[in-house]
Design brief:
Layout (H helix, E strand, L loop, with lengths): L24 H6 L14 E7 L5 E6 L1 H5 L4 E6 L21 E2 L5 E7 L2 H10 L2 E5 L18 E2 L3 E2 L1 E4 L2 H6 L3 E9 L11 E7 L2 E6 L4 H12 L6 E4 L15 H13 L3 E4 L5 H4 L6 E9 L5 E13 L20 E11 L12 H19 L3 H7 L17 H12 L12 E2 L2 E13 L6 E6 L5 E4 L9 H13 L6 E4 L16 H22 L9 E6 L1 H5 L7 E13 L5 E11 L6 H20 L5 E2 L4 E2 L17 E6 L23 H13 L5 E2 L3 H4 L6
Parallel strand pairs: 1-14, 10-29, 12-13, 16-17, 21-22, 25-28
Antiparallel strand pairs: 1-5, 2-4, 2-6, 3-5, 7-8, 9-17, 10-15, 11-12, 11-14, 15-16, 18-19, 19-24, 20-21, 20-23, 24-25, 26-27
Helix pairs in contact: 5-6, 8-15, 11-12, 14-15
């Protein structure tokens, strides 16, 4: 008997208001939460990096003497005098070690002065001479250097084939062959990338804006050639990261180098205009999707082929074809990535890498298949639900995307939709609706944690998790209280320092699952100790420690993913070409939701980011200079609250016993995935023209509108 689908959970507004209280709320609104650039040790000075002004070449002269005569300037570091670093596994951190300029914006010097103003003025005035070389900025499509990498991001195979795609596609009754493009996209967290570092007796302390200070500590220890226990990295409060702070970035290495050189604390804060070149971005992609189906829309052949670019410094290939290995029935399949190394900034993780960009192309192509077959877009997806994960053949631990589609269609009023495109018009306003499915993998990393019970009845949980604004303190306290059988108010959570028990970074929507398992294990052990203890606790209390290396290392026989469905209604101005999203709805199946209010915040935040992908976020590479033209928030447009009047997130009350003791999946990124496609599909429904290039800015729409 097929089990009944999980019910829709109550909306966040129906949940007890006590759940809405975030553990760090008071600290943040009163300013007592201290960020990396707000720690000022005695004698702290300020450093400003100097980006290369050529697209490729060599530094031939650094005229440091000219700026060292300026008031307040203390030092100029370059490849000529900077401390020597150990081997860097990440080439973007091999800073000031040689005269090479691999791309425009690469840091070639660091100016240190007594005030930020003096440092900035001296950095702007530093004269550097170069021997320029010819550079290759692409584009990647059709480039002779294209190759299939052995692996894409996350260890995913660069190429996977099943069956005979070419023959099956050629024999299909209905065929879709569409190519989708996306320009580069950039992380722009509210808090800039910043570090404050100082040495004391051979020990290094760093306050860093990072998604994982354990990783920062380990990398700094290797680069600076010091034992790891002599490096402490604190990332207690972080104002967003979205992948750009997932690994150490240049500012932390430069701050530590300068502090060692000068023997005093040094702060480095990267200007927003330089982030596009040095902290990673989503690389532009060209994605060709081919789908062969029968007359009823059942897929027999599916190919998703991705062309992208990386830098000559560090290879990063976004795994955009991977979602096609998960989503739909496809007995004959080809999913591939091709990449070329260019003289451009290094791409990296950004907001659901792979799934966000790949699902845009796949779900837009599914909409085209729905039009070609005359099958309703929701029904088409239901007809192509696989019994097992197509690529691996493994059973799903849980897969409720069909119920997300059904519940979403009901809540959205999908049944009232006129399927004909371009018919809902009021004056100059065209209205359309669209849908897309979404998926994101369940990821789990080993973690450690400790749990302490004090004689006064209070509890302290300690681990080096990082709260990047998602509410980790709140959720971990809830997990601890549940395992202890205690009130959440009795639990205090300490996190954000590498001096605490080791924990993985906040990324890949894996934080709560990874940290939470360690917290649950430690608190379960502590609860057992408390039950076995007779009489009052000793003055020092009781402490339990946990390590989930064994549990996280077990290979699961199941394919484990979060799923969802997004619905969008848009309004297109036929005169200006402007697209307005009137409402967004997301319904998700992400295991047990531990904190409804913080979960809702993440879901709607993710959908807002997907809106940005669809309509506003785009960056163009200047081929003459080899860098990105949009380098600030005046030219790189991110969505704001006014860009979507109504956004609603709902989720199923899903139980999945094959995950972790909490039954939770990641929710930080599933909201992003699918949203851009839902909006693009809604735009097609509104205007009757299929546009395949993101973002859908007015200049792209206007040539297709009657006005």
């Amino acid at each position: 008997m097929t089990p009944a689908p999980p019910p829709l959970a109550p909306s966040a507004s129906d949940v007890d208001a006590a759940d809405a209280v975030r553990r760090d709320a008071r600290q943040k609104v009163t300013g007592t939460a201290r960020y990396a650039a707000e720690h000022t040790p005695p004698g702290c000075v300020h450093a400003v990096p100097v980006p290369a002004a050529v697209a490729r070449g060599r530094v031939t002269a650094v005229h440091a003497d000219e700026v060292l005569r300026r008031p307040g300037v203390l030092a100029v570091l370059s490849h000529e005098n900077a401390p020597r670093l150990g081997e860097a596994e990440d080439g973007t951190l091999a800073l000031l070690q040689d005269d090479r300029v691999p791309h425009r914006g690469w840091y070639v010097a660091l100016v240190v002065a007594d005030t930020p103003e003096n440092a900035r003025a001296a950095a702007d005035g530093l004269r550097i001479e170069y021997a320029e070389e010819d550079h290759d900025p692409g584009p990647p499509a059709g480039h002779p250097g294209l190759r299939v990498p052995e692996e894409a991001n996350g260890g995913q195979p660069g190429l996977r084939e099943r069956g005979d795609f070419d023959a099956a596609f050629a024999a299909s009754a209905v065929r879709v062959d569409a190519t989708f493009t996306m320009t580069a996209q950039h992380n722009h967290p509210m808090e800039p990338h910043a570090s404050t570092a100082w040495w004391d007796g051979g020990e290094l302390t760093v306050y860093d804006s990072s998604q994982g200070s354990t990783t920062v500590r380990d990398v700094l220890a290797q680069l600076l050639k010091v034992p790891g226990d002599r490096v402490t990295v604190v990332s207690a409060y972080v104002g967003g990261g979205f992948g750009s702070k997932g690994t150490p970035r240049p500012q932390v290495v430069l701050a530590a180098m300068a502090s060692r050189h000068l023997g005093r604390p040094v702060r480095v804060v990267l200007p927003r205009r330089e982030l596009a070149s040095v902290v990673g971005h989503r690389a532009p992609t060209v994605q060709r999707v081919r789908i062969g189906a029968d007359a009823d829309g059942v897929i027999g052949a599916l190919a998703h082929e991705v062309v992208t670019q990386t830098s000559t410094v560090r290879e990063f290939v976004e795994q955009a074809a991977v979602p096609a290995r998960v989503m739909y029935t496809s007995p004959h399949s080809r999913t591939s990535h091709r990449v070329v190394a260019l003289d451009v900034p290094s791409p990296s993780w950004m907001r659901a890498p792979g799934e966000a960009s790949g699902m845009y192309a796949l779900e837009a192509a599914m909409d085209e298949l729905a039009v070609a077959t005359g099958v309703d877009p929701v029904e088409l997806r239901l007809r192509n639900e696989p019994a097992t994960e197509p690529d691996s053949g493994r059973p799903f631990s849980s897969r409720n995307v069909a119920e997300c589609l059904r519940q979403g269609a009901r809540l959205f009023g999908w049944a009232d939709r006129d399927p004909r495109p371009g018919v809902r018009r009021s004056g100059d306003r065209l209205t359309g609706t669209g849908v897309a499915s979404s998926t994101y993998p369940y990821l789990l990393e080993p973690s450690t944690a400790s749990a302490h019970a004090a004689p006064d009845g209070s509890h302290v949980v300690r681990l080096n998790a990082t709260d990047i604004g998602t509410g980790a303190r709140t959720v971990l306290a809830r997990i601890a209280a549940e395992a202890l059988g205690a009130a959440a108010s009795s639990v205090r959570v300490e996190l954000g320092s590498s001096a605490l028990p080791t924990a993985p970074l906040a990324g890949g929507s894996s934080g709560t699952s990874s940290w939470g398992w360690a917290v649950h294990k430690a608190c379960t052990a502590l609860a057992g100790m408390l039950r076995a203890h007779a009489g009052p606790l000793p003055p020092e209390g009781l402490t339990a420690r946990a390590d989930t290396t064994e549990e996280a290392g077990r290979e699961s026989p199941y394919a484990r993913h979060a799923f969802g469905a997004q619905f969008a209604e848009v309004e297109v101005d036929a005169v200006t070409g402007e697209v307005r999203v009137r409402r967004l709805l997301g319904v998700f199946a992400a295991g047990r939701v531990l904190s409804p209010h913080t979960a809702r915040s993440q879901f709607i935040g993710g959908m807002t980011m997907g809106l940005g992908m669809a309509l506003t976020e785009g960056s163009t590479l200047d081929p003459a200079f080899g860098d990105f033209a949009e380098r600030d928030l005046a030219s790189y447009h991110v969505p704001v609250c006014a860009d979507v009047p109504a956004v609603e997130a709902r989720w199923l009350d899903e139980e999945d016993p094959h995950l972790n003791p909490m039954g939770s999946k990641g929710i930080g990124e599933i909201g992003i995935v699918g949203t851009a496609a839902a909006i693009a599909n809604a735009v097609h429904h509104a205007v009757g023209v299929r546009l395949r290039d993101l973002p859908l800015t007015p200049d792209r729409l206007l040539p297709h509108l009657g006005g």
